[in-house]
Amino acid sequence: MSSVPETDWKLFRKLQASLLAKACESVFMKVEEIAGKRADDEHQSYLNLYDLIKIEDAKIAKMFNNPTRNSVIFKIAALKRFDVLTDEQLQQFSDETQTTIYRMLGE
After folding, report:
1. Phi, psi for 71 (deg, rounded to 5)
2. Host domain of residue 19
3. What is the pTM of this model?
4. pLDDT by residue (tens digit) across 31-81?
C-alpha cells in the first residue's frame, strides 16, 4: 500500500492532536509514578526517568513524526500497537486501512 485513502489521511490529521495529547498524558502518568517513589533513591529515580523519556520519545516519534500520506499507515499501526488509538477510533478508518493495520499487527 503506497498511501491511504484521502478520507483516512484527513481523519488521521483530525485525530492527531488529541492522540498526541493522550500519548503525552500517558508519559506524564509514568513520570509521576517514578517521581512519587523516589524517596531515598533520587539518583536511581533520575536514571529511571531518563530511560523512560528515551523510550517514550521513540514511541512518540514512531506515532507522530513527519506524517505523510505514504507513511501514515505506519503511524496508525504504531498508535494502535502502543494503545493510543482505540478500537472505536480505528473503526472510523476505511475497511482497507483497518485490514492493513490488523495485518501489520498480526491480528
Report:
1. -110, -10
2. 6-104
3. 0.91
4. 999 999 888 889 999 999 999 999 999 999 999 999 999 999 999 999 999
